[in-house]
Design a protein that fits this description.
Helix content is about 15%, strand content about 30%. With about 260 residues, the protein is α+β, with helices and mostly antiparallel strands. The structure holds copper (II) ion (CU). Copper (II) ion binds next to loops.
Amino acid sequence: MNKRIFAALGTVILGAGLIAGIGSYVAAAKNDPGHIEAASAGTYTAPDGKSYPHYTLNLNTYPNALFGGHHGKDGAHPDWVSYGAAGPNGEVQPDATGGTNYIVPAHSAITISIWQYDSGETLNNDYFAHVRGTIDGTATFVKRYDVAGKTNVTPEEQITNIPADMVGHTFTIHGMSDGQNQVFLSIPLMMADDAEVTAAEEEGGYTNFPTKTTFTFITGDAGEYVWNCEFPCGDGTIARFGNAMSTMGFMSGHFTVKG
Ligand SMILES: [Cu+2]
């Protein structure tokens, strides 16, 4: 073989190998390879009298990724905001293996509680300040929850929206227009007390008083959905939609409805 052709061929093979290598590295470097399965909680009777199998999920939203959990002890982006697994009273779960991929059963009632430990600002689109897609279009909201005391500090209220300039994060599941029985859901999560969030972060921890939002919805047919936060929380990036907002495992993930 001509020496130059041989060299050129060698370069091409090396290049192909490198690209394949990078491809498999990127595929393997998912930020959250784990998942959280909703826990069975008996039967739920909807306001219309219909009964459904009932399941629950507990989640937290954090001002940084230092809680560990699915990011591990030395996560690559400790300063990025993130969702994570929660205990039954919003407790931090440093050893959880999943945090942003959720599995729930089809045609069931799902109750999700989210403790929101971050501060907040203004949405780009106030559509997302409204509760969408839950039973009755409402959510149960506690402005100040005491995690250590496992109790509400302020009374529980039923809400249909929050002020568009007090949003910490949103939990938004996007459905598809393929004619199946679908899920679209969006819940605004109110900011926690700004000064307390900052003070706790400086101490290397989280405020003991997050906001708490609980909501129930009925799942449709089995399918794979995506969810993301619609509050621009990717601080320090263009229009704040980079970093945590554009990387799986922080402010977005999979939502799988299992048949
Ligand atoms: Cu967010």
